[in-house]
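Hi Y.,

Following your request, here is the sequence exactly as I used it, all 257 residues.
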Amino acid sequence: MFQSMFLTKKSKFFFFINFQIIINLIINNIVVIAVNQQINSNSNNNIRCDRFDDMFNDFTMVSSNRRQFPTTSDEFIKYCKKNIDLANQLSQSIKKCLDDNSMRNIASLVLYSYRSRTKSLCKNRNSKRAREYINAAPCLNQYKQRLSKCIDITANKIGAIQSRPNNLKFPHLCCENLQFQRCIDKISAGDCKQKITVFAESAQSIMNGFIDRSCGEYNSDTDRCDQLDPINIGDWKNKSTKPSFIRNVAELISSIE
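Below is the corresponding structure, written out as tokens. Let me know if you'd prefer a different format.
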């Protein structure tokens, strides 16, 4: 009987200890959730929608007025950390700053493509791809303004496509994607030509990821793009000297019925 009482007391003791552990875990989880919610709330409060386009330009580098491509291993590490931070901010900004659900989905898809490539690139700073990126950086910095001009022209034209008939919007988008590559090809970059071309092809492949399969005959192997009326950005009321590539793409695709 004494032994039975002892076991009972012992069981109660362990039950009490386990109960305390469970309570502590619950409290800790509540605290963690509350802290995370507060962090997310603070992050949302710090989001400035008027900086959305600037953040995207900083993230993609070419059109950024504030950032340069990393030319050393240390700069590469900082570049990767900054891009992770920008990607998180952009993800929150898309949710807060874009009202249309279709636009949010398209913008998120574009961001996901860029984010995936950045994550793959930054996975190992000593990888062949990372070394090639660092090696190409001086050329990319030298011709960044020229590359940015090609992107700005393409972004404005993509915006102007919205005024075209619905059945021609996607063909025009496919063809402007080709025009972007032609714009890059026209840059006389000497010894840097191959390095900036590789970068441009990488950037273009992100766009290809969600439009290429739907372009059909509107590709570089046919003359279908030449048969379309040219896009005149001079007639587009929202023409900008620093247009939003991601916003214009999202608006155009979401407008296609």
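The chain has one domain: 26-255.

Thanks again,
Q.
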